Amino acid sequence: MKDRYNREISYMRLSVTDLCNLKCKYCMPDGCINHTVPLSFEEMFDICKCAVDLGINKIRITGGEPLIREGIVEFCDKLSSIKNLKELTLTTNGVLLKDKADALKQAGVSRINISLDTLKRDKFRDITGFDKLTDVMYGIKVAEKLGFEQLKINVVLMNNYNIDEISDFVELTKNSSISVRFIELMPIGNCFNYNSQYISADVVLKKEPELKLIDFKGVAQIYQKNGYKGTIGLIRPLSDKFCDICNRIRITSDGKLKTCLHSSEEYDLRGLKGDDLRRKFIEAIINKPDSHTLTETCFSKTTRYMNEIGG
Question: pLDDT tens digits for 63-110?
Fold first, then answer.
């Protein structure tokens, strides 16, 4: 399935809820969230089946926090049975991972990404509103022990907040095959103190000059420190945007198809079935924009917050 710029669209992110058990300041600012009624899992399955029939071969389950939705494990098990779906992955904040990891693996989830922006308990409590760092770290250990492929930790870089922890995150890859991925903060929604918090991913290489570029995987530049088992990924949506290789679309929990994270354009899939659903998918893909207009001074055009989109 190709768009008009000849990009092969093969990756879909599906948000199953816009609710979360944390309240990160850059994602769910106080007083700014209007929660929507999510699609049923039956509706979501129909959308996923149609997407795979059209050429999507990787689906990532997101939120909000996907593990708080009742029935998520059973839904993953059903999705994993779709013919021609090559990868079923999931992104979580990790709070409930220790209790869900084994069931998720049995249900066919092959890869897990954990969002974690600090390794310090006081800062974790400050940015998320909850004292749950111990739960997250234990969940990571459980997932690693279970043998999930390419376990990843996603770290949003924030100046004056976690830049001093870059080396600590790099050290997590010394004796583990975990991949730590540093992601530039994006100006989306009511992003707290964005102008003072944004910093280029180049800061990682300045802090860790021994990192060597070893590969490119999708949107990430992959680095490794000599003798370390794991890797470091840099994702640069602003300083080195990757729109020309974008292969993804997103489905919000209330059934809107977004072909660009930062576009206000959405296609309503709720209630559509069969040929009508297929036609709407094709229409959206054909009209996928060539690039976002995001810069350090130009905010995202989307009207949603990150928890409403699924990242």
Answer: 999 999 999 999 999 999 999 999 999 999 999 999 999 999 999 999
Q: Distance (Å, rounded) from C-alpha 37 to C-alpha 140?
A: 30
- Which CATH superfamily hosts domain 11-309? Aldolase class I (3.20.20.70)
d(CA 50, CA 45): 9
DSSP state of 248: E
| Distance of alpha carbon 80 from alpha carbon 106, whole angstroms | 10
As a whole number of angstroms, the distance between CA 190 and CA 306 comes to 10
Boundaries of every domain in the chain: 11-309
For residue 75, what are its two tokens?
């839904």
The residue whose two tokens read 């693996």 is: 105
Number of helical (H) and strand (E) elements in the chain, helices listed first: 10, 12
Beta bridge partners of 173: none
Q: Which helix (H) or strand (E) holds 156?
A: strand 152-157
**DSSP assignment of 191-205:** -TTHHHH---THHHH
